[in-house]
Design a protein that fits this description.
Blueprint: H1 15-34, H2 39-50
């Protein structure tokens, strides 16, 4: 199972929060695309914020 960056956030989030989360997804996507961070590495880094 891979990481999905393209998802629909709940509409209950404030526009500023949605913009922030979109920026974060873009940042992690760039790190994976350049090879600086693997998909597995980014998943483990992001998981600590979701626990």
């Amino acid at each position: 199972m891979g990481i999905t960056d393209d998802f629909e956030a709940p509409t209950v989030l404030a526009p500023a929060v949605q913009a922030y989360l979109a920026q974060e997804r873009s940042w992690w996507r760039m790190l994976r695309a350049t090879g600086v961070m693997s998909e597995a590495d980014s998943a483990s880094e992001l998981a600590r914020w979701l626990e």
